[in-house]
Amino acid sequence: MIALVQRVTQARVEIDCQTVGAIGVGLLVFVCAEPLDTAEHSQRLVAKLLALRIFSDADGKMNRSVRDVDGGLLFVSQ
Predict the structure, then answer these.
(1) How far is the C-alpha of 78 from the C-alpha of 49, rounded, in Å?
(2) C-beta separation of 63 from 53 below 8 A
(3) How far is it, in rounded angstroms, from Cα 14 to Cα 1?
(4) From residue 32, how far is each of 2, 9, 22 by CA, in Å?
(5) Which of 53, 33, 58 is nearest to 43 (CA)?
(6) Could you write out the DSSP letters of every residue in the chain?
(7) What is the pTM assigned to this prediction?
(8) Nearest to 75 by CA among 16, 18, 27
(9) Which of the residues 3, 40, 42, 52 has the least number of beta carbons within 10 Å of its own beta carbon?
(10) What is the C-alpha separation between 57 and 69, in angstroms, rounded?
(11) What is the pLDDT of residues 33-68, one digit of tens each?
């Protein structure tokens, strides 16, 4: 499983001018699932994303996770 992660202030996915997914602050994740990937691979990816310290703290250091900022995850299949 391959993932490209982008920190966003907001993101949405539209299909035929209709929003099918949207988040405010959080992580936009483009995911490429491969034939041998399992549910366990997905669970490990989500655990890593939730623990990723990619958001700034009060001192401006990237030291907060998506959980810490009450952010969302938006997955887009590639």
Answers:
(1) 18
(2) yes
(3) 24
(4) 5, 23, 19
(5) 33
(6) -EEEEEEES-EEEEETTEEEEEESSEEEEEEE--TT--HHHHHHHHHHHHH---EE-TTS-EEE-TTTTT-EEEEEE-
(7) 0.90
(8) 27
(9) 40
(10) 9
(11) 999 999 999 999 999 999 999 999 999 999 999 999
Q: Which two tokens stand for residue 51?
A: 């623990």
Q: Contact, 38 vs 23, CB < 8 A?
A: no
Give pLDDT tens digits for 22-39: 999 999 999 999 999 999
* pLDDT of 5: 97
Comparing CA positions, the residue from 66, 70, 42 lying closest to residue 53 is 66
Question: CA–CA separation, 49 vs 25, rounded Å?
Answer: 14
